[in-house]
Hints:
Structural class: alpha+beta
Amino acid sequence: MASLVLGTAGHIDHGKSSLIKALTGTDPDRLAEEKERGITIELGFARLDLPSGRSMGVVDVPGHERFVRQMVAGATGIDVVLLVIAADDGIMPQTREHLAIIDLLGVRRGVVAITKADLVDEDWLALVAEDVAALLEGTSIEGAPIIPVSAKTGAGLDELRAALDELAEHAPSRVANLPYRLPVDRVFTIAGAGTVVTGTLWSGTLRRDDPVELYPSGRTGRVRGVQVHGESVDKVQAGQRTAINIAGLDKDEISRGDIVAQPGTLQVTDRFDARFTYLGSPGSDKRLESGTRVHVHHGTRQVLGRVLLADAESLAPGESSLAQVRLEEPLAPRFDDRFIVRSYSPVYTIGGGVVLDAYPPRRTRLKTHERELLDALLAHDLSSAATGLLAGRAIPMTSAEVAAALGVPRPQVADELNKARLDRLKVGPETYFVTSDALEALVRSVETELLAFHDENPEATGISVPELRDRVERRIQPKVFDAVLDEAARRGVAVVDKGRARHPEAAVTALAAESDAREAILPLLQAEGLAPSTVAELAKQAGIEPGLARKVLGKLAAEGEVVRLSSELHFSAAAIETARERLVSALARSPGGLTAAELRDALGVSRKYAIPLLEYFDSQGITKREGDLRVLRER
């Protein structure tokens, strides 16, 4: 049986909580203030047992306009909606707003309960039912069963249970083969257990002892225990409401709106591309201007942001457009997630839509390939979307990275990428896919940046590879950039040597000068033995600039030809080996140790060189200092 969550919706004081109590035996209003004021303020939870033997988790939401934020948080995880409309009031403002939210969230299964049916006559009930049927037309739950009920007398409750059971019978399961993901709608502590979060598992399977990552903060923890409907279980599956005891995270490190997910499976972003539908404001035909500041609801989180329209400068009520939603605080959405948009002030639900590209480039106008990608995502054409994503990102990606960006299992895109006409870069055991145009653009950028670097630094012989990556495209992982550089070298526009890159047609003069300096400095150091000159003195003897001398000495040290003891003190490798032999020989003859002065004499150098040499051999683990003496370190 599919695991399902039932959520209520409807205007304040239309009897949602009373109906849930009558159906389940549980009062979802748990706060003292709720019981005192007679209204729902926070999300309430219960378990509904149905005639077939299946059970559903129940989320009861507030109906007051001031608590629509809480309503959206509760509605995001539901599979079936129970729209509650009081017979004596009929359709009210929050009825319409809640229905709009349900429609925007894509909830396609629902039942309408006309409550307080005992307060009106049959003719009035029939009129209310007609109004409700008309209200549902064109929404995601058009044609839903409409059942008069009374929580007070029990009339209609059996029919309502049967209707819910029928919906549950044909409900599809949530995505189980994606990594687990749970938006948090409540967090609290239990004495002796620690931090507990509740929510509806949107995808995957979560087990006891699984590692978890909290998004967007990136904090990590471990699942200590799992409960479903108050009973401890070993695992929880997509579609189930659950309480998770998390070890390693304190209550004040988690809040409603965070997402508990498999580590490394979500990307935090400050923008996403979407298909956005504008509903308009109550009683107004005002257009929505591109860039309007709004409240954005995703999962159980709400942040401020702006909607930048891609197809128009503004939208009239009822119109839709591709758009980029820019966020003032980060979110971690996936492809095909639903979101709600509410006006900045006064606050009212004005639209929403579906997330398409969860990590797009920052731009205001769509290029052709970007539009094609969004159209493919909207049509759920994963073959075109997979290659379109690569074209849009314009960087090498593995099939796993493409699948994660699209929010689908890897096998669904791996075959498509392997069949597509794409270039491939082998990085260790992984294959990275990239479009020919994107790879060509990266290679051109490598050449352009190398030439620019040489123009800016005519005396330099090359740029470090990490610095070049930052100039070309910092989104590319270092190991993948190495593969791009190899391709650039194969095409004859780059030379890579010992962690530095240069253009083959540039730096000729600098390379020649460096080569000449190397040929002059190394023999000088070798000839000076254990009494080398300073860098300035070496430069003067070699007839070169001190800056070039330092650069050459640095490269010689990296190659092992020279040992650098300080910024001014460099020894040839042969001189260091001579010093080591003299030191070991002297200490072997005096196992009790020798003073610095005695070792200075053994080395045959002045104190200026003796102390740096002794400290160097200490650091190399050859000698160790014991008080005023040095002895050989035991091996």
